[in-house]
Amino acid sequence: MADAPATEIGSGRDDVQFRFRDDEPAGVAQVTVDAFLEQPAAEAVRVEPGDDARALLPHLARVRLVEVNFPVFGDGRGYSAARLLREHGYTGELRAVGDVLVDQIAFMRRCGFDSFAPERPLDPADVEAAFARWPEVYQSAADERVPIWNLRHG
User: Fold this and answer.
1) Average pLDDT of the chain?
2) DSSP E strands: which ranges in the chain?
3) What CATH number is given to the structural domain containing 86?
């Protein structure tokens, strides 16, 4: 793998990054949740479907990177893991990996993901369109967007 920077995509958002297998920086070793809990020096963890992300809550201060695996696009458990971590104060990089599709990334972003490593590269224009598709939201989430009802009735 080359040591190239992540590809940044998304309406000028410097907080959204896309990584593909050929541009992942070296030196960040992700371990499973169980292995992370046994290694006090670990700073990166990979959450698989079925893992309980709540096990990470007492350790959020030392976590630099959380990868949440989406082995198939229809498995939505990673959304819950992401939102749980953000709502409990995790501020590090939260990366969706695996079968990440362009029509899901806006929802992933709302749940707190700020980095994406899809199995297959995504077209930058499609990504821009996905982030811009719904300028208003209807409920609060892990991101900073204000629901439209709150804008109207402030």
Assistant:
1) 82
2) 7-8, 17-18, 31-32, 44-47, 65-70, 93-98, 115-118
3) 3.40.50
